[in-house]
Amino acid sequence: MAKNPKERGLGMGLGALFESTGTGRSTLPNNSNSAKGADASAPGDDVKYIGINDIKPNSNQPRKNFDEDKIQDLADSIVEHGIIQPLIVRPAKVGYEIVAGERRYRAARKAGLKSVPCLVREFTDRENMLIAIIENMQREDLDPIEEAEGLEQMIKAYGLTQEEVSKSVGKSRPYITNSLRLLNLSQEIKDMIAQGDLTPGHARALLSIDGEAKRLELAKRIVKSGLSVRDVERLASGKGKKAAPKAKARKSRDIQYVEQELKDIFGTKVNIETNGTKGKVEFEYYSREELNRLIDIFRSLK
After folding, report:
1. Which residue of 106, 247, 266, 300 has the fewest CB atoms within a 10 Å radius of its CB?
2. Per-residue pLDDT tens for 232-281?
3. Is the dihedral of CA 259, 260, 261, 264 positive or negative?
4. Catalytic pick from 19, 68, 97, 102?
5. Would the pLDDT of 213 be above 70?
6. 102 is annotated as an active-site residue
């Protein structure tokens, strides 16, 4: 899942989030890969070299799995070029705690560094957790389950709304909803997603199946046979592969376009059936929480 880091800062999303949640913080570190971007913090901040043994990992780090080969590659780069972007740390009871930069910290240890460049910032536990989640999401370093757990933590631990989370991480509201739905799957299926054996698209199709045993059976079949998301959707709906083209042929492209548009807006599958001037629009839900979410959206349209 690892990709090249995106050159965009944390400031806008985090600033908007902290304003909306009443923290009143806006001077946040930029996440650019350039040396200047790394030090684009509040005026007067200086990079300090801190002993690596005086720094501990972030207790709110949402990322659980680190690719050791990539850590080694980064360590080799650090040996040759040093650490270009300082770590962001905050004072702890003893020493300092990482706010952003755990990969660099781990690689620096492998490289044998005795001290590392840091920006020391005063962050609360709440801000520390939010920054750790958002930094990883913007770098696309989290697997889908780590990401969903991080989003859930933002909502449950600190009472943020899905709308606030959406703005802070730069993702759409349906994206947030669909990500959180992954946590309704069994641990075995979540492990398959985390390992990359199943995509989030496969997982959402599995959620339409009642019963964990049936979901797991189909999940194993996906991995074994390489079924596409479309295949899983057909199997989940109880339709054979030959039945799908007929159903699709009955609908005009305009109807299919509107179905997809509504799906993006409401974050769930939408089915439109027409018969002349009459018809119906169906919104699927997969849990009581999902139903309540849809009802809240409809009520807000008054």
Report:
1. 300
2. 888 887 754 443 444 444 577 788 888 888 887 787 888 888 877 788 88
3. positive
4. 102
5. yes
6. yes
